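Subject: Sanity check before I submit

Could someone independently write out the structure tokens for this chain? I want to compare against mine line by line before I put it in a report. The sequence has 441 residues.
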Amino acid sequence: MKKKVLSLVLVAAMAASMVACGSNDAATNDANATAPETQAPAADAPAADAPAADAPAEEFDYGSGSITIWVADAVVDFTKTQAEQFIADKGVDYTITVEPVGEGDAAGNVITDVEGAADIYGFAQDQTARLVSANALQQISGTGFDEWIAAENDAGAVGAATVGDTIYAFPLTSDNGYFLYYDKSVVTDPTSLETILADCEAAGKSFYFDLGAWYNVAFFFGTGCTATYETDNDGNFVATDIDYATNPQAVVALKEIADMVASSAYQQGSSVDAADATKLAAIVDGTWDAASAQKVFGDNYACAELPSFEGSDGATYHMAGFSGNKLLGVKPQTDAGKLKLCLELAQYLTSADVQTARFEQVGWGPSNMTAQASDAVQADPALSALAAQMPYCIPQGQYPQGYWDAGTALIDDAKSLVGASDEDIQAYLEKYVATCTADIQ
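---
Independent answer below. Compare away.
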């Protein structure tokens, strides 16, 4: 049995005494709320004295110590300033250390050494299931913070923080999606994929689009196909609904991919910095490359939702996609005081005021609905384009390695599909789905 570092009965009792802190808009938990009924702690769980359920928050003993936080390099200084201000306002004897660890690397580093990992860490939503399976995330459901998370953040962000029916993290952003950056002196109509490719060809310019599994759903989901996975509460993949081998619209999607690859303007890729800036005229990318796109396109910088395309069946389809999030997780703790403080600090760092300030300083798009409605966020061209694209996207859930492997193979295989028959396209899709479902238990 894996060691349980703090039982849910402790967290539930502790939650009743928690008062949400941080920005003025943060919700306040009811100090006299009745804790949900839970099972007794496991026999091998370390002993810890739970605070009284009706104890006022100001009487709670947080103890003393240190809290380590891992966040992306771009927000290290911002996070340190905010966290230290929180600790000072709280008046507790804790020191804060903030270290640069990117969201994409967090799960690997945490799972390798959970005990030695940061107390609070940022991570990308596709890592949630792995972290839950490794017992590396404190369960938020049942603490009272789950109600605050659900009330403050958009539905996609709440879903990203959830495994099974349990919330495990605090949403940090809702900007992990993609849309179109383009040079408006070259692209005359950003709403049409055919026009974008034709304009780029005529100007001797390039259109960059990544055929990996995260991006190619723009075609598959756009034509009405499905690719979702179900996990249990331990983060294990137990079922899938991927219809690429049985839905005839998947043939339409893959033929359109092949047609795009056949264009002399097409280039594989999704990074402005990795593109040939002298040739670049359009790219499907995310908000993280906004500064680079502005630098390359200058006065001709423009953003738009993804375009539509005419399929081989004569119908018109709007390109779809994934929406995604950055999340802030709390590592389970053996000390009740430190756990309570970590949860309150994570809540503060993801509150509306702090998300707004983070956007203003580093451009990260908020998940908090109040922050999303601010004038500054609404006026940002990249976030506005992403917002326009969102109705065509589905929140990215948990996807197994086989799914990503299939997309990686498509990058290399796409050119061989140019001009392929429907039968050959169908055969490829059947192989594709077999790879996607290889990890289902």
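---
OP: Matches mine. For the report I'm noting this point. The chain has 17 helices and 18 strands.
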